[in-house]
# Entry
Amino acid sequence: MKKDRGRFPPAGADPRPVPTKALVPGRPPVYISRAMSETAPAPAEPSSAAPNLLELFIAFALISLCGFGGVLAWSRRMLVEQRKWMTAAEFNDAYALCQFLPGPNVVNLSVVFGRRIRGTAGAIVALVGLIGPPFVIITLIGLLYARYGEIAALQRMLAGVTAAAVGLVFGTCAKMAMPLFTDRWGVAPLVALATFAAIGVARWPLYGALAVLVPLSIAIAWVRR
Amino acid sequence: MKDDTGTLIALAGYFALMSLFAIGGANSAVPEMQRVAVEVERWMTDRQFADIFAMAQITPGPNVIIVTLIGYHVAGLIGALVATLAMCGPTCVFAFYVGHAWERFKDAPWRRAIQAGLLPISIGLIGASAFVVASVALHNFVAVAITLGTAIVTYLTRLNPLWIFAAAAILGLIGLL
# Structure
C-alpha cells in the first residue's frame, strides 16, 4: 500500500507520525482522529471506530459544498488532513484508481472510499453526500433560471460569469498540462493537442474520436514504458 | 419544456454513455453535451448552454452537476434526476466493483500505460470544453479579456474563483459585455 511508485509522494512524505494500516473492506482502519483542526500535524488519537454512515455523509457533503472548481483539493484536505481517515499515500492510490476509471473522478472516489469504510451502504451514503447538496442547489438555480433567465440584467451578469468560467477551465487545463512538457519525446503534448483539435475545433463526435485517440495514446505509453 | 418518456429515455441514454467516456471528469464531456443538447436534440440554444455551463461552474460540488441542470432544463425535476443518475450510475457501479479488485493490479505495467495514455487525452478534452464554450459565448473584446484574465489568474495564483466570478458578474451587469 505504501510502496513508493515514483510519481506520487513517497511514503515518507506523509506527515502523520503514526504507523498506517491498509484500508480493508469490512475492517476499520485502526488509527483515526476526529481532530477537526487542520494544518498542524495533530497527533492522531487512536480509535477503533471507523466513521459511521452519518460521519461519512457529512464529510462528503462538506467536501462538495466547499469545493469550488476543485473538489479534489477539498477531498484530500477532508479525508487526509482533517479526519485522518486515509494517509496521503492511500489517498494518492485511491485517486489514481479514480482517474483511471471512466466518469467523474471525485464521484468515483466517494464510491470507492465509502465501500472500503462501510461496504455498500457506505458507498451509497458517500455518493449521496457528495451529489445531494449540489443537486438541491442547482435545481433551485435551474428553477430561478427558468423563471427569470431572460431578464436583461441577469443575462448580462451570466455573460460575465460565463467568460470567467471559461477562463477558469482554460487556466486549470494549463496547470494540468504543464507536467506533460517534461515528457522526453514530446509525444504527450501532441496527443493532448490532437484531442483538443479533434473535439474542440473540428467538433468530431466524442466516441469516434476517442476510439482512435485512446488506443493510440495507450499504445504509445506502452511502448515507452 | 417537454417531459414525455421519450425525452427522459434520450437523456438517460446520452448521459449513461457519456459517463463511460468522460475521461478525466465531467468537464471532459462538455463538447459532447453541447453537441447533443444544442445541435442534435435542439433542447436549448447556444446561449442557454453557455448559461448552464456558467451556473454549473459557480455551484459548489463536482463538475458533474452540469448534467443535473441540463436535465432540469429539458424535463424539469424528473429530468434532473434522470440525467444525474445516468451520468453517475454506470461509472459508480464500475467503480464499486473494480475498486475492490484494484490492489492486485496497482503496479501492473498495463495499468500504468493506460493511465499515462489517458492523461494527455483528458487534458485535451478539458481544453476542448473551454474552447467550445468560448466559441459560442464570447462575443466581444471585454468577454475575451475576462476569459484571458481569469485563465492567467487561475494559472498563476490560488485565488478563490468566486472572487473572479463576482467581479465578472459586476462587469457584465454594468453593461460592458
